[in-house]
Each structure stands twice: as C-alpha cells, then as structure tokens.
Write a structure and sequence with these properties.
The chain folds into five domains: 198 residues, Beta-Lactamase; 64 residues, no CATH class; 98 residues, Beta-Lactamase; 81 residues, Orthogonal Bundle (Helix Hairpins); 177 residues, Heat Shock Protein 90 (2-Layer Sandwich), CATH 3.30.565. Helix content is 54%, strand content 19%. The protein contains 18 helices and 17 strands. A six-stranded mixed beta sheet has the order 15-16-14-13-11-17.
Length: 654
C-alpha cells in the first residue's frame, strides 16, 4: 500500500473516530434528557395521585371513622376510604390512560400491600421491589441503554404519605421499559442515521482535504530532487535520483530525498565541526595571540593568549571593534591602529610595551578574490619574545634530559650486574671471616661492613637511576586540581609543623578540572612542597596558589627561603644537580619529567636579595585544563576563603 494512501486512510479514520465519539456523546445526552423528562413528568403525576390519596383518606375517615383506635381498625377504615373514592380512581386511571410510559398506578401501605391499583389483580397482593426510574436517570449511558433496550422490566416512581414521621401510604407509578423504548425509538433512530451520515460526510471530506493537502508534496519532491542533483559531486547521484523518480509514491520519494540531503548535511557538518575543533584546540594551546578581523574591523576570532597582551578577558573581545581592543595611546595599540589606517602588511615589527615587554607584531591582510584592491579581513599575530626565549630554554632542558636518559639507561644496566656480583662475594668473605676467631679477622670484618654499606648506597643510586629512565605509563582521570593540592598539603602538614613551617592555600570556588595521572601529579606537588620546606630551615610561610588561566590549570608554590642564585637557576632541573648536602638531584628532574608527560610546563623564579619583600623561590606548575571548563570560571577569578576541596579560598595548614 502506498504511503500516501496510508496517510489518507489514517486521516479519514481519525475523522470518523472523532465523529463517532461526538455522535455517541450527542445520543447519550439526548437519552439522558428524555429519561429526565419522563422522570420529571411521572414524578409530577405521582405527586398529584398522592394529593388525591390524602384528600380521599381525610374525607373517608371523616365520613366513616375507625371503630376503635387500633392500627387494624385504622388500616381497614383507610382502605375503605380509598376504594370508595371515585375521584382517586379517576385520577389513577387517567394517568395510565394518557401517559405513554406508565403501566400501572398503585397505593400501598408501608409494608407494600396493595390497597388500590389500576390493575385489579394486584389489589390485596404484596408488591415486589422494582428498580427506581430516578436511579436510571443518574446512571451511565451504557446502563441506560441496557435498562431501556434490554430485557423488559418495570421501573418505578414512588411518593410517600407520612403519619407521625413514619411512612403510612406509598403511591407507586410503574413505568414499563418497553414503553420507554417505544417512545424513544423514533428520535434515537433519527440520531443514529444523522450520526452515520455525518460520519460518511466527514470521511469523504477528510479524504478530499487530505488529497488536496498532500498535492504540494509533488512540487516539494521535485524541488528537493533538484537540490540533491545540484549538491551531488559524483556521477552516481543523478542516477540514484532518477531511480527514485521512477517510483509512483510521492511520500517515498520525498522521504528518500530528505534522507539523502540529511546525509549530505551531516557529512558537511562533521567536516566543519572537526575543522572548528582543530582550530579551537590549536588556538587554545598557542602562546601567540591571534585575532581575525572582518572588513569592517570587528573581531570574529580571538585566541586565549590575546588576553596577556591587551589586558582584556578573551570571551569579551569577539564582536568588538578594533579600537575597543587596541586602545589608542598605548604602544601596541598605536602600532596596530597605524597599520590598519595605512592599509599595510607588517611581517615582524618589535613593539616595546609600557612595562618593557617586547612584543613581535604581524599584520596580514586577506585579499578579496573578486576585487584585489579590497580585503576580506585582516589577521593580527602577537608574539611575546620572552616566551620564545623561555620555550627555547625548555627545549634545551628537554634535550639534555633525553640525552641523560639515553646515557644512564645503558650505564645503569651495566653497573647493576657488577654490583650484584660484588655483594655476593662480600657476603662470602664475611662468612669466612666469621669462621676465623683471631684479632685480625675482627679488623677485617669492620672493613667488610664499610664496603657493604657503600655497595648498598651505590645500589640505591643505580636503582634510582633506573627508575628515572624507565618509561612510565599514564593513567589519566578527570580530577580537580584543588583536591590534589589539598591532599598533598594535608599529607605534609605534620612534617611542616615539626619544621615550624606554615602553609597557606588559595584556590577558587569553582572546580579546576584537569585530566591527569593523579599519583604522578601528587608526587610532583609533594617534591615541590618538600623542597620549599627544606629551603626554610628556620621556618616560615609557604603559599600554595591554585587558579585557572584560560585553558590551563596553574599551581604556584612560593616559599620564603634564601632563594636560588641566578647562576644556579638554569641547572635546577638537571638530573643529579643539587645544592643540598644530602640531596640526590633527582626530585626536580622527576617533577619536570612528570609535567612534560602531561603536556604541561614547570617554571621557576627566585629572588636572593635579603631585604626584598618577595625573597624566596616560586615554582609554577602548569597543566592543560579540561575543555569543559565554563567561560565564567575563566573570566572571573574566584574569591578566597577556607582551603578545602569542597569549597575554595585561603587557609593555613601548620
């Protein structure tokens, strides 16, 4: 079956169902109203008979009062009064004669014994229980149909005459269900015929309207097929469109054409998304500031590093005008504005900023393919020359570490085996000396112990060397840098207290998410904290600062020690280099290696001036942050408070 046919049938079926529901509701309401009218009319007749019954009893008891005050005498007198009253009999017979639904009218006592009735056979008999017509009026449509059009039965309307607050006489009007059915059948038949005609008309109208509504799909199908032909890039696509056109079902052709367009759009969207993701990732990790301006000098692309050059948050610069980003009156702003005003390209111009910082400026105009005298936009590149020198230093340190690693990997393996052999022979020599009991053996034994101790120390050095050169496997997890820093501070708090050192922690309120190996990062932070503690033998304060800079998580550890001399500072990350009497020279080299493995960086600044307020050493650890970090957390640094992972702020651990 064609899809169009299915849609037309569905629409007509829905219209038919709605009409049938409305007709059912309409018929049900009519049925309820007719039963209500019948109930109200017969109830009025019952009240009229009740009034005549009261008058008959009053007149009869006045003419022939009971012989005594007993209930039996009263019942007999009332019965005679009712049976002898012709007016009551005429009213009861009139009700039966003129009401189309009434079968009989009876007057019974409180126990149901029939005293008078339009049915002579019922007089003196006990009247059974009959359903109430008022209850049928309040029942559901289904129950009304069952009572009226089901098995014949007699319904009843009753009115009670009370004496001393108790039922004394009851007027009962019997309504036969067949009479109700006969009186309601004509209008019910007309309503059903009307409903069927309305359903038929609605089905026809729905079918016609559905066909008219689906006619524009032919034009839509042809237009979509033209679009797919225009978008096709290979020769197979037109053949596919032709094969689809050969089908007779418009809906199938439209569906297939839309699927084909959707596939083309998805492939293009995936390509654009991948390109945008690569571009954003490149801009986020780039230390150079990159800005792209349109022909009307508005920024459409700004890298994170631009904030370091112009002093504005990165997220607020997109869409701003050139003069709102580069302010006139500043060295960098004047250079950029002059280049734009002159319409010139700048390959590499060094600009000395107000603080003495040297920035290399490049301005490249993008020509318009249609008009070479016009430009589609302008690309501005800002490069910090100090950053270039720093990158060169980091590359040199990495090269030296790599060379040391290659050298020590072989040396450690070659030295380990002779050490093991020497240890074995020392143990044999010790056992032989133990067998000798002269004085010379005791002196020799002391020399053996010295040799054994030195061999163990040499073995530890070789083992440490092997651990440093052994490849490490990263187990990356999404972690909060605040929690890592807090855990390390808590781990060292007891040792810090023994050395009279206090630790102050500052961290933002929002999480600083990173994807790192938690154990290695904790080891790196622990090395830096212990170094800071050992640099202050007299005690002091260590500040641990955790923050986010654009897409980078930063941890800064600042001590108040004596500082590192400038001539020593370039060698602090060299393997085995140390200025401590008992240092191994491996801790900072291992920390530097851990940061390299995570794609981060480790920076150091130191001041050795005794009177300087910032005397001491500051190690800055940088790790790439999670891409899901909110822009608000990059724009607004968190305030400070207690130092704990769940919150944020400043605190001290002693």
């Amino acid at each position: 079956m064609r899809l169009k046919t299915k849609l037309v049938l569905s629409v007509t079926g829905l219209a038919l169902a709605i009409v049938l529901v409305l007709v059912t509701l309409f018929v049900g309401e009519l049925m309820r109203q007719r039963i209500e009218q019948t109930t109200s009319g017969n109830d009025a007749l019952a009240r009229e008979v009740l009034l005549m019954t009261r008058q008959a009893v009053e007149v009869g008891l006045r003419i022939a009062p009971p012989v005594d005050r007993s209930d039996a005498a009263l019942r007999e007198a009332v019965t005679d009064a009712l049976r002898s009253n012709n007016a009551l009999a005429d009213v009861m017979n009139g009700v039966v004669r003129y009401s189309p639904t009434v079968q009989d009218v009876s007057v019974t006592d409180a126990n149901g014994l029939v005293l008078v009735s339009t049915d002579p056979d019922a007089v003196g008999q006990q009247m059974g229980s009959r359903p109430s017509l008022k209850m049928l009026r309040d029942s559901s449509f289904r129950e009304q149909l069952r009572q009226v059009f089901g098995r014949p039965r007699v319904l009843e309307i009753a009115q009670t005459l009370q004496r001393n607050g108790q039922p004394f006489l009851v007027v009962r009007i019997g309504v036969r269900s067949t009479f109700l059915r006969n009186s309601n059948a004509p209008w019910l038949r007309a309503a059903v015929i009307f409903g069927l005609l309305a359903g038929l008309v609605s089905v026809i109208a729905a079918g016609v309207l559905a066909n008219l509504a689906l006619k524009p799909l032919e034009q839509i199908s042809r237009r979509l097929e033209q679009m797919t032909v225009q978008e096709a890039v290979d020769s197979a696509a037109p053949l596919e469109v032709k094969s689809v056109r050969s089908g007779s079902d418009t809906m199938v052709r439209v569906a297939k054409t839309i699927d084909r367009l959707d596939e083309q759009m998805r492939s293009k969207e995936a390509g654009y998304t991948a390109l945008q993701s690569s571009l954003n990732q490149m801009l986020d990790t780039l230390r150079d500031g990159v800005l792209l301006f349109t022909a009307d000098e508005r920024a459409v692309m700004v890298s994170d590093a631009v904030a370091h050059f112009v002093g504005q948050p990165q997220g607020t610069m997109v869409g701003l005008h050139l003069q709102q980003i580069f302010l006139a009156g500043t060295a960098l702003g004047d250079a950029v504005l002059h280049a734009f005003a002159a319409g010139q390209d700048i390959e590499a111009q060094t600009v000395v900023m107000e603080g003495g910082r040297q920035v290399q400026l490049a301005v490249d105009r993008i020509p318009d393919a249609a008009d070479s005298n016009r430009s589609m936009g302008t690309l501005v590149t800002l490069r910090d020359r100090d950053t270039v020198l720093q990158l060169g230093q980091e590359l040199e340190v990495s090269r030296r570490l790599a060379a040391i690693g290659k050298l020590t990997a072989g040396v450690g393996h070659e030295v380990k085996n002779p050490i093991n052999a020497m240890v074995v022979h020392l143990e044999l020599l010790r056992s032989k000396l133990d067998a000798m009991e002269d004085q010379s053996s005791a002196a020799a034994q002391r020399h053996v112990e010295i040799l054994a101790g030195e061999m163990q120390r040499l073995d530890r050095v070789v083992q440490t060397l092997a651990d440093f050169t052994r490849p490490m496997e990263l187990h990356l997890h999404e972690l909060d840098m605040r929690e890592l820093a807090s855990a390390v501070v808590e781990l060292t708090c007891a040792e810090m207290a023994e050395n009279n050192v206090r630790v102050a922690v500052e961290m933002p309120h929002e999480p600083v998410l990173v994807r790192v190996d938690g154990e290695l990062i904790r080891q790196a932070l622990l090395n830096l904290l212990l170094n800071a503690m050992q640099a202050m033998p007299e005690g002091g304060l260590i500040r641990v600062l955790v923050r986010r800079e654009q897409q980078t998580a930063v941890v800064e550890i600042i001590d108040q020690g004596t500082g590192i001399p400038p001539e020593v500072l370039p060698r602090v990350f060299d393997l085995y280099f140390t200025t401590k009497p008992r240092g191994s020279g491996i801790g900072l080299a291992m920390t530097y290696r851990i940061l390299q493995m995570h794609g981060g960086a480790l920076e150091v600044q130191s001041n050795v001036q005794p009177d300087a307020p910032d005397r001491g050493t500051a190690f800055t650890l940088r790790v790439p942050g999670m891409a899901s970090a909110s822009a608000e957390s990059r724009k607004q640094p968190g305030s400070t408070g207690q130092a704990q992972p769940a919150g944020a702020g400043t605190g001290e651990a002693s």
